[in-house]
Amino acid sequence: FRKDFMWGAATASYQIEGAWDKDGKGQSIWDTYAHTEGAIEDGTNGDITCDTYHKYLEDIKMLKRLKATHYRFSLSWSRLLPTADSSAPNAAGVAFYNKFIDGLLANNIKPCVTLYHWDLPQCVQDKGGWQSEDVVEKFKEYADFCFSQFGDRVKLWVTINEPHVQCGFGFGMGIHAPGIKGQFSPIYHTDPMNACYQVSRTMLLSHAHTYRMYSSKYRAKQNGLISITLNSDWCEPKDPSNPDHVKAAQFYIDATLGWFAHPIFKDGDYPDSMKEHILEMSKAQGLKNSRLPVLSEQEKNLIKGTYDFFGLNHYTTRLAEQITDETQAFAIHPDMPSFVYPDPSWERAGNDRLPIGSEWLFIVPTGLRKLLNYISKTYGDPSIIITENGCSTKHSVNNPGDTKQLEDEQRCRFITSYLNEALKAHLLDGVDLRGYFLWTLMDNFEWAAGYTERFGLYHVDFEDPARTRTPRKSAATFTKIIEE
Ligand SMILES: CCCCCCCCCCCCC/C=C/[C@@H](O)[C@@H](N)CO[C@@H]1O[C@H](CO)[C@@H](O)[C@H](O)[C@H]1O
User: Fold this and answer.
1) Residue 171: CB within 6 Å of ligand 1?
2) CB-count exposure of residue 316 (10 Å: 0-12, 13-18, 19+)
3) HSE-up of 215 (CA within 13 Å, CB side)?
4) Strands (E), 135-269
5) Atom of ligand 1 at shortest distance to CA of 446?
6) Does the keyword field hold Hydrolase (predicted)?
7) DSSP classification of residue 220
8) To bridge 454 with a disulfide, which of 62, 121, 246, 443 should be the other Cys (CB 3.0-4.6 Å)?
């Protein structure tokens, strides 16, 4: 790896901070969603979670002990701007992040700051949220505020984390905040499956306007880098000699990674395969136009090229074939013609007691090398930062297992083997890889799974009011790799 390679861990505000209603913080859509009965697997929420708001100095010590050069975390929009109005900031929220950033820098750890990791202020949601055009201006105003407050010290920015997961989970399946299951809403969209596409457009525009605002207003003075983080599985045909399988694998990548990567890193627009298929599906349902909003030439020009690096979150791999009547029920989206599934031989994330970690997570290190090569070739050899990669264990309410799992051999192997493939992509294939952030520094609130899934290098005792953190073996493994 490069001498200046970024070695870090990653987290997100709602998942670790707690203090959900303290010191003037406003509510976010995740506060609302997690307080909704039945929304979270174990009935928990992020009200306290790791209590980083009060224990941030411990987090910094943990990072120092890891020998991390960087730390990726997100800002809570509603902690900084409780009414989403930048002329009425929350001084306590600003002070918290100032102390935190200063503490990191004092320990020689550079911050990588995500502006938005899924916790939209509830007051913005109440006015239409990502389904309303107004959000673009609001996001820009929030970003402007953050650059003005923290940009003198923060030199690495991520606008939005994993927009496609958010569109699919929050506005299609409805299993993440704001929990919209493609409902009919006469105000913002006119088709039951339109919400996730509407939202993808406002996210793209918010990202692009923010990037351009940073360039025109702050770049010369602050000299930082800014981009977006996209999540992608690697996907390959079940039978590489079957053209239908090849097409299905490519479509899956186009409609997940390409959905946002093509507009930003390629030509300003969605992949052709996606546009053609969604138009066909829309027409088959009697719609006149595609439910995928058309991006105007002006919007395409605005979006195209708005990146300084490619932020990649990667966890797992899938095989693909064309969907059939029998497999239609397993489609991840009504507009998805690819049936994707894991190879039965792949190892699952998990442990001896509960062998299935996150249900979706299969350990396929070679997928990372292939994906890095694909991104490099498809998007013109951008500098890539792996902004998340990690492995989980599961702990159900009825079968708590050993939540501590300090001897997390599987996570050690996961880190070593994925990094080994990343190194091959860099060294042997020439991929311009700049950094690696492990998900995650410590066990935390894993969205709809609550505390049943643990990804941490550090175990956190959520029964203990002190939220004691204990390093797992994987923390030492990761440190050894960084040191050497
Ligand atoms: C033709 C149109 C098709 C639309 C398709 C929309 C379907 C979207 C659904 C995608 C589902 C992907 C599931 C992936 C899950 C993970 O990769 C995801 N959880 C990664 O998120 C990050 O991972 C951490 C661990 O889960 C998490 O804690 C962190 O906050 C996330 O950033």
Assistant:
1) no
2) buried
3) 13
4) 156-161, 225-231, 234-237
5) 28
6) yes
7) H
8) 443
Tell me the pLDDT tens digit for each residue of 271-326. 999 999 999 998 988 888 998 999 999 999 999 999 999 999 999 999 999 999 99
- Write down the catalytic residue from 17, 162, 321, 421: 162
Residue with tokens 């977006």: 228
Domain ranges of the chain: 6-483
- The whole-angstrom separation of Cα 129 and Cα 177 is 11
Is-catalytic flag, 162?
yes
Distance from residue 233's CA to the centre of ligand 1 (Å): 9
483 is catalytic: no
- Strand extents, DSSP E, 359-432: 362-363, 384-388, 393-394
Q: Which of 58, 299, 388, 453 is catalytic?
A: 388
Assigned CATH for 6-483: 3.20.20.80
**pTM for the full predicted model:** 0.97
Contact 12, 161 (CB under 8 A): yes
Q: Is the peptide bond before 163 cis (omega within 30 degrees of 0)?
A: no
Name residue 135's amino acid. Answer: V
Nearest Cα neighbor of 103 from 66, 67, 63 is 63
Paired with 449 in beta bridges are none
Token pair, residue 481, equals 């790799």
